[in-house]
């Protein structure tokens, strides 16, 4: 979840991260996601790789929370999958 209150420190960290590692990490997530989506069994893992692209590009100023915590904070249903059982 992005955190708006992190300020200039996270912005500067994200710029440095993008220059040093973010761009190639994003390319690897895209390539791995495409390869995994070539098989039926790999599709869920490929989709997970595509979801990690934004975290690979801009990791600073984000917080990783559980699904329950995200729901409690009111994150949209499109971002957090709901169980069907």
Number of domains: 1
Euclidean distance between termini CA atoms: 26 Å
Strand content: under 5%
The number of E-state strands comes to 0
What number is the mean pLDDT?
82
User: How are helices and strands ordered from N to C?
Assistant: HHHH
Q: List the uncertain runs.
A: none
- State the major sheet: none
Radius of gyration computed on alpha carbons: 15 Å
Describe the overall structure.
The protein is built from four helices and no strands. Helix 1 packs antiparallel against helix 2. The model has no long low-confidence stretch (mean pLDDT 82). The protein is mainly α and 85 residues long. It has one domain.
What is this structure's SSE topology?
Layout: H1 8-36, H2 43-51, H3 53-57, H4 67-72
Helix pairs in contact: 1-2
Task: Describe the structure concisely.
The chain is mostly helical. It contains 4 helices and no strands.
Main attributes?
single chain, 85 residues, mainly alpha, 4 helices
């Amino acid at each position: 979840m992005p955190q708006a209150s992190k300020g200039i420190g996270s912005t500067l960290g994200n710029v440095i991260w993008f220059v040093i590692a973010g761009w190639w990490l994003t390319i690897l997530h895209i390539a791995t996601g495409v390869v995994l989506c070539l098989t039926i069994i790999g599709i869920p893992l490929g989709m997970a790789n595509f979801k990690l692209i934004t975290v690979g590009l801009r990791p600073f100023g984000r917080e990783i929370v559980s699904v329950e915590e995200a729901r409690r904070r009111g994150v949209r249903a499109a971002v957090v999958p709901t169980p069907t059982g």
